[in-house]
Amino acid sequence: MTSEQQKLPASFELRRRDERIRQRRLETQCVHAGERHDPIHARPSTTPIYLATTFTYPHTQELDDVLASRAPGYVYARYASPTTNALEQALATLEDADAALACSSGMAAVHLAVVGSQVRAGDVVLCAADIYGTTYALVNNLLPRLGLQTITADFTRLDELEKLIRSKHPRLLIFEVLTNPLLKVIDAPAVVEMAHRYGARTIIDSTFTTPMTIQPMGFGADFVVHSLTKFLAGHGDVLAGAVLCRAPDFEQMYITSYQLGCSLDPHAAYLALRGLKTFPLRFERQCANAMELALFLEGHPAVARVHYPGLASHPHHALARRLFRNNLFGAVLSFEIKDGDATKVFAFMERLRVILPATTLGDVQSTILYPAHSSHAALTEEERVRAGISSALVRLSAGIEHVEDLKEDLDQALRGL
Ligand code: PLP
Q1: Is the CB of 207 under 6 A from ligand 1?
Q2: Are 393 and 335 in a shared domain?
Q3: pLDDT surpassing 60 at residue 328
Q4: By the 8 A CB rule, do 165 and 194 touch?
């Protein structure tokens, strides 16, 4: 009995020899056999990972329409790719932006937002002094080499900021809502309103705040940036970023994105999209843990000071209450160990058994970092002290572990000093 005559299970069809290529030679078969070009009717319940870099069409006219931007579609993955587009649609929805462009890292997103905002040589860029170190370096080291003038300012002092904007006429402002590592809160709606009054545009890096806490598009931010590497993806296994923008800015942002070549790899996009599905659950738990740890550390005899905007003792607590949704004050806090210096802080970090010493934040696991030797290592001792980053300061990103285990871990490490 031949296999043709036999009654075969239906799934045989999915695995059988590819008749379309059977008569070709082995070398050709290796390249073409088995490729699935036809859409299947059953829809997968999650977005598949499309690793294809190139897409083909049955009619050349269709390809031409996509190439000429007359029709949406896929041609070459640096321009658009289905898995990455799925992530972009999700992000634009969460931030209530018109569109999103996923990038190969948070820094690629910052870079794209700056270049895509259409600043040009001679323009002034005003950057918050309290900003992620690599963003600070990009603005203050790279942009001046390209002919932009850059200035930095304390964005918590609105009166002084306004004077500076009035006198320097910046075209672009860049800042974060929650600063790192002291968790100062910037009155972002007031800054955006002020920038627009003087004809400047704004990029807000909302990595620390996330759309669970604040949606900057809602109060007029021009561009929002995320390091998806942190809370939104959340599992410490993918490096990714995104720029959110409005429809009139999309074309420039899109062109800049494929010219810079910073688009996100589909595999990474898949991981970020998967992380996003549990982001609200994780973030609520992380913020609740951070709040409880902040209260615990505030009462601990080995701790001199705690910085967390959810604490009534934080100078920007009232502003945080006004700006932040869902009573979420973020999942990052910092604290100063009593009489702490590098040696003492290192001993403390090495005694931790649950919390990981690691240069990141936003992961499901709690992580701790010494800003003086990591995020702010480039500053001189004097600059660091002026910025409020003492040698006793530790930054903690709360994970989703049971909070009692985190408290016990901190307590045993602090008591052992
Ligand atoms: N923005 C903020 C606030 C960050 O903390 C970081 C990284 O720590 C970045 C941007 C850069 O993100 P990435 O490491 O994904 O490039």
Answers
A1: yes
A2: yes
A3: yes
A4: yes
Is the minimum distance from the CB of 130 to ligand 1 under 6 angstroms? Answer: no
Number of domains within the chain: 3
Give percent of the chain above pLDDT 70. Answer: 98
Residue 271 contacts residue 386 (beta carbons within 8 Å): no
Asked if 227 contacts 375 with a C-beta cutoff of 8 angstroms, the reply is no
User: Token pair 């934040």 is at which residue?
Assistant: 361
Report CA-CA distances (Å) from 109 to 184, 260, 328, 335. 23, 11, 25, 30
Inter-residue contact 104 to 241 (CB < 8 Å): yes
Mean pLDDT of 385-390: 86
CATH number of the domain enclosing 306:
3.90.1150.10
Amino acid identity at 282: R
Which range of residues forms the domain containing residue 33?
13-41
- Closest by CA position to 77, among listed 49, 105, 109: 49
Residue closest via CA to ligand 1's atom 4 equals: 132
Ligand 1 centroid to Cα of residue 214, in Å, is: 18
Give, using CA atoms, the residue closest to atom 12 of ligand 1. Answer: 106
Query: What crossing angle do the helices spanning 106-116 and 247-260 adopt, rounded to 10°?
Result: 120
Cα–Cα distance, 185 to 172 (Å, whole number): 20
Judgement on whether residues 123 and 21 belong to the same structural domain of the protein: no
Task: Report if pTM > 0.85.
Answer: yes
Alpha-carbon dihedral of residues 354, 360, 361, 367, nearest 10 degrees? 10
pLDDT average, residue stretch 88-113? 98
Q: What is the dihedral of CA 331, 336, 341, 342, to 10 degrees?
A: 0
pLDDT at 1 (0 to 100): 53
**What is the 25 CA–ligand 1 centroid distance (Å)?**
50
> Is 107's C-beta closer than 6 angstroms to any atom of ligand 1?
yes
Contacts of 54 (CB under 8 A, 6+ apart): 75, 76, 77
- Does residue 241 line the site of ligand 1, with CB under 6 A? yes
- 260 and 377 assigned to the same domain: no
Largest CA distance in the chain: 90
Closest atom of ligand 1 to 207 CA is 3
| Rounded Cα distance, 39 and 20, in Å | 17
Tokens of 397: 């990103």
Instruction: Report the distance separating Cα 259 and Cα 369, nearest Å.
Output: 35
